[in-house]
Design a protein that fits this description.
The protein is of the alpha/beta class and 459 residues long. Helices cover 42% and strands 13% of the residues. It is globular.
Length: 459
């Protein structure tokens, strides 16, 4: 990265179809389909460009002692981004394999980085214009082929809200991109629905070593990137797929109250919605699956919408082994989804599993075994909710007569605990809980669907 006078200069240019971000001598184009960008009002484009450029590069001030100079005024959304990053720091701590990173150190680093950031010019605020773009019954869905986005897609269709799925193609995720391109082709052939792949060249700015800076508020970056789609498609809704467990917190060793997946919480989703108003977006941001937990999501997806459920791919896909395998078989997500499928009586082969996740050498991937050799690839797996849900899943799988080394170990050490707590765990993880992001018009039909599908699972 080139420097000028010891500083990193960052510019942005509004182009014919989007934005060009210049960091030193390197350029990164963020380009939208022509019909989408043309329908994004010009009155909001400069503020949008300022916000997006800052948000895609703000982590650079954390990486070194160089001053970051932005060639535009401070965006009005800056305080929102800083709060989001502050509350997302625990994920960096929880996924540190060496366990040397402390929350207090990261807070200090973030605080000090503000004094290494400079903006040129006075703030500008876009003049509000009522563009009335959300009159159609349509939803934008950030889409990944994970269980959450698949169920959100299916629910949106059942509610009569036509979904427009968007997948962000990250340049540092080649294996994931390859598998999901193949799934998208099959998905189109079967349902005549295009999954819109959005190439994100600015993803090269993310770090792949050290503290993984730049990945911290990934989903919130996507929210910002989707605003032109909301205008272009005249969408009434942006449906994120955040389940009930995303709202749970615990206290870390230093005494910080943390949410391991803060940007998936209902609180942050509602704040994102409020912040989007600064850019003229008057769509409703909500999560259709907020009232339910992961096991309930899996049950509804594969029993009510089995033809959609068979496309599920919930795998990190980071390692070389994922190059030619739909499910890598060496990450905690693979482990969690595998036991959930067995608990519900669904063959893992139906969604493309080729690896037996119940061998003894896979033990370290499961949160239910507290003495396991830790695999720090998931912050959520270190919460009590993760272990509880897996305790229930293993108990259910054991009842079904599933076999495997880890089933045998579970029966020996934890089945008694699972049986004792089963009724309460079923009430929680197959229950229907409160939601903050759902409007009444969405909540009433959704709760009816959930109750129909989950009533028998709480017995």
């Amino acid at each position: 990265m080139s420097l000028k006078n010891g500083h990193i200069y960052i510019y942005r240019t509004i182009t014919r179809n989007g934005i060009q971000i210049d960091v030193g001598r390197k350029s990164y184009d963020i380009s939208y389909p022509t019909h989408i960008w043309q329908l994004f009002p010009e009155v909001y484009r400069q503020t949008f460009a300022d916000s997006l450029t800052y948000f895609m590069t703000m982590h650079l001030a954390l990486l070194n002692s160089h001053k970051i100079v932005y060639d535009f005024p401070p965006p009005p959304t800056e305080p929102f981004f800083l709060k989001g990053l502050l509350n997302s720091l625990p994920e960096t701590v929880l996924t540190d394999e060496k366990k040397t990173v402390k929350m207090s150190d990261l807070v200090k680093l973030l605080y000090n980085s503000q004094y290494r950031t400079e903006f040129v010019g006075r703030p500008r605020y876009a003049r509000f214009k009522n563009v009335n773009r959300n009159s159609w019954t349509r939803s934008i869905i950030p889409f990944s082929f994970g269980k959450d986005s698949l169920l959100t897609f299916a629910l949106s269709q059942e509610l009569g809200i036509k979904p427009y799925p968007v997948f962000f193609r990250e340049p540092r995720q080649p294996f994931e991109n390859r598998h999901k391109t193949r799934l998208a082709e099959r998905f189109f052939d079967e349902f005549d629905v295009d999954v819109n792949f959005f190439p994100l060249s600015a993803g090269w700015l993310r770090q792949v070593e050290d503290k993984y800076w730049g990945w911290d508020l990934l989903l919130t970056q996507y929210t910002l990137l989707l605003i032109p789609f909301i205008f272009g498609m005249r969408s009434r809704y942006l449906f994120w797929a955040h389940e009930q467990s995303c709202n749970e917190t615990f206290m870390d060793k230093e005494g910080f109250i943390v949410n391991p997946v803060y940007e998936q919480s209902a609180n942050w989703l509602l704040m994102s919605n409020a912040t989007a108003r600064m850019l003229g977006c008057n769509a409703i941001f909500a999560s259709l699956i907020e009232p339910i937990h992961e096991l309930a999501i899996m049950k509804i997806l594969h029993s009510r919408y089995p033809e959609i459920g068979k496309y599920q791919l919930s795998c990190f896909g980071d390692e070389e082994v994922a190059k030619n395998k739909r499910w890598c078989g060496i990450c905690s997500k693979c482990a969690r989804m595998y036991i959930f499928l067995l608990a519900l009586g669904i063959s893992p082969k139906r969604v493309g599993f080729t690896t037996n996740m119940l061998t003894r050498r896979k033990k370290y991937l499961f949160a239910v075994f507290p003495e396991r050799k830790s695999r720090m690839d998931s912050a959520f797996d270190q919460s009590s909710a993760a272990r509880e849900e897996q305790l229930l899943a293993f108990t259910m799988a054991t009842r079904r007569g599933m076999k495997g080394d880890l089933i045998s170990e579970f029966k020996k050490h934890y089945y008694k605990e699972g049986r004792k707590r089963e009724n309460k765990l079923r009430e929680k993880y197959f229950g229907i809980h409160t939601s903050n992001s759902l409007t009444y018009e969405l909540k009433k039909p959704l709760l009816s669907i959930f109750e129909d599908e989950l009533r028998g699972m709480r017995r």
